[in-house]
Write a structure and sequence with these properties.
Layout lengths: L1 E5 L3 H12 L3 E5 L3 H8 L10 H10 L3 E4 L2 H7 L2 E4 L14 H13 L4 E5 L7 H15 L6 E5 L9 H6 L4 E4 L4 H14 L9 E4 L1 H32 L3 H9 L20 H14 L5 H13 L2 H10 L7 E5 L14 H11 L3 E5 L4 H11 L3 H5 L1 E3 L3 H5 L4 E4 L11 H7 L4 E4 L6 H6 L3 E3 L10
Parallel strand pairs: 1-2, 1-4, 2-3, 4-5, 5-6, 7-8, 9-10, 9-12, 10-11, 12-13, 13-14
Helix pairs in contact: 1-3, 5-6, 9-11, 9-12, 11-12
The chain binds nicotinamide-adenine-dinucleotide (NAD).
Amino acid sequence: MKITIIGTGYVGLVTGACLAELGNDVFCLDLDASKVELLNQGGIPIHEPGLIEIVARNRASGRLHFSTDIAASVAHGDVQFIAVGTPPDEDGSADLQYVLAAAKNIGKYMTGFKVVVDKSTVPVGTADRVQAAIRGELDARGAEHAFSVVSNPEFLKEGAAVEDFMRPDRIVIGCDDSASGQRARAAMKLLYTPFNRNHERTFWMDVRSAEFTKYAANAMLATRISFMNELANLADRVGADIEAVRHGIGSDPRIGHSFLYAGCGYGGSCFPKDVQALERTAQDHGQNLLILEAVEAVNNRQKHVLGKKVCDRFGQDLTGKHFAIWGLAFKPNTDDMREASSRVLVAELVGRGASVALYDPVAMDEAKRVLALDIADAAALERVRFAQSPMDALNGAEAVVIVTEWKAFRSPDLAKMKQLLKTPVIFDGRNLFEPGTMADNGFEYHGIGRSVLTRT
Ligand code: NAD
């Protein structure tokens, strides 16, 4: 099928590349000319396992194109996916300016039937606004073309995006019952047929329910994280081990083991903004989502938990003290630093006078860019060093603080770590290690929701 993807970011690029891999003829539009140029030169703007190979293969086969040409993009695809960003507006609601701009472009240039798919995460009712934006442009030029707006939210996870897209748990598609809606449904059914070969994964529903499903899923996941983080902080106080508690409750099939990890807060481009946007939607409809307000507040507080633990141990004034930080990306296998907990920690430590040595397997360049924006004080920024390796970061540090659970940090050379650190102290924001093992190896270990344990 002929597909256009509008917006070539995490979601758009993965969607476009994977649909091309299945034999579709895909045209990816982005307004960011430098991004398009990089892609056309064989580069890739994001780190995502497996993606570079798929992009290269499908570019070579002529099934995947990148361009900034809006008119050509509208002409190309019978199905037009809108996969642009929906960042939070000042009041927390989703900023729909990019979605609506994409919709207007479709209305401006379309010359025949189009299926317009909202792939971006957009609040309930957005399909109506997309429809009105397209209709407005058609009316302005006196054109009469049928189209249908479909909701098909994306559930891929950064770091496993290709795998998630190719083997989705579920495909949610919301269509309306009009003749155009039925036509759109048939096109979407055909497009997603390869994903349903093993078993049917598509959930067909009305458009508003599909829009809502995406927010409900992210809100539930964020809730589980904040729930466990709040209990972990209590476990710290009462001397319980949140990891034991996690196993104890996760074995109940009604609860399950997934997404019950305590840590130093969730980040990324989705959970924080989607929780806020759902709260905002509720307020607009005269309802307060009390649970989600708490989820957000708990998460904002949790991003300070490592800084607080460091201060409890080394004092409020960290002048002259040096710390190593392992992991900067908001989660492993990505270079995405949006809303990453590491940003809060680094700003807090250097703000208190400390110097830091940072290491992340892939997010170093992105970290350099965002930390330069975060840390306004030039002297504080001077105290940030980017290390060559995890071990390089440890040299002369009072402690290492682990923020992202990269696999490469899971089985480090403990003897070497001890040798390099000034004092053998570990703050483990992702509970990678067993407190007993760390103590047996002579470390003072501070996990999240695990009692502090030192053995001599
Ligand atoms: P992103 O910021 O990485 O990419 C968006 C891209 O759209 C940018 O390259 C931008 O230049 C381009 N763009 C903006 N306006 C445009 C226009 N009018 N025409 C063409 N291109 C335009 O965003 P993302 O992370 O891919 O997220 C996109 C949407 O998908 C968001 O709504 C997000 O919430 C949702 N989503 C993201 C993820 C994720 O893990 N990143 C997962 C599921 C859903």
